[in-house]
Amino acid sequence: MTDAVDLIDVDFLLTSEEIALRDRVRSFVTTAIRPNIADWYDKAMFPTQIIPEMAKLGLLGMHLNGYGCPGRSAVDYGLAALELEAGDSGLRTFVSVQGSLAMSAIHKHGSEEQKNEWLPGMADGTTIGCFGLTEPDSGSDPASMKTFARRDGDDWVITGHKRWIGLGSIAHVAIIWAQTSDGVRGFIVPTDTPGFEAKVIGQKLSMRASIQTELMLTDVRVSGRALLPNVKGLRGPFECLNEARYGIIWGVMGAARDSYQAALEYSQTRMPFDRPLAGFQLTQQKLVDMAVELNKGTLLALHLGRLKDAGRLAPHQISLGKLSNTREAITIAREARTILGGNGVTLDYSPLRHANNLESVRTYEGTDEVHTLVIGNHITGIPAFR
Could you list the active site residues? Predict the structure, then answer.
């Protein structure tokens, strides 16, 4: 089955260490996620019991150095994200929110005291973080956020409302971005602080094995030491978002691969008109189209990962990868479902679950429209956001 997936020998471009790490994560997905994901998705349940094993695999803050973090390469992180999302987007999202968003904010912008206080526990999974940027009326335009932090002596008092915040209800600490009299600033807010409330968003049609929440902050008082001291303005959250977007470029190829493999296996055993479904020309065209885009997308992810490890990855390149790979992954998942016929709308098979999840992935960390305009700005030199 490997040869039916990796048509261009992408593995030849990986080191033995990278392949070994990928295979460890793949084994974890096979044993801990695949047998249970349909039930978790059906019950809209995030499996907190697997967090310690994820930590033991070095998946939390995987690409960060020091402070108990694993310090792996960008390609290592990408390969892990691909394997996790082959299980389910919600499980890869947990790793992204914890490591690429919450931990990265502290690692990039925090003081030494803050890093030593928070990062070791977050790396070992005993402390869960969330990242409060998006608001009900400001998703793609975070500059219009209304959450405000005011100085009161040596303290800060934060009031506002965040929405679509992953892990908010199980988090021990929240990274909250707020307007101040000195521009947008980030704050480390323990979630047991009086005035902090997290409410789970229910009745979702997507990302059901994941947690999304609303955060309400009512006169939440934190000390001056809660302020992330080393960044001011939207550069702070955007640098973290680019870490998460990079992981998506890889992750969605995992969802696409799993969808393709499910359709291929089904087509070889389904026997309409006394022959395998895989033997029909129209089915083969679907499978070939899926395989071609899967291989192209994986190669793009690997190239961007090598650029990131070399310190050469630019924001427009992240946007290109996120836009292209997410778009193609959705197409693959939907096409795979057609090969499964009516059986494909059940949780016995993964493609429609992946397709539903990918609708969320397509929206968060920058919509298609936002990434199109980022690339357009780079090509033309003319910003077209307003």
Answer: 365
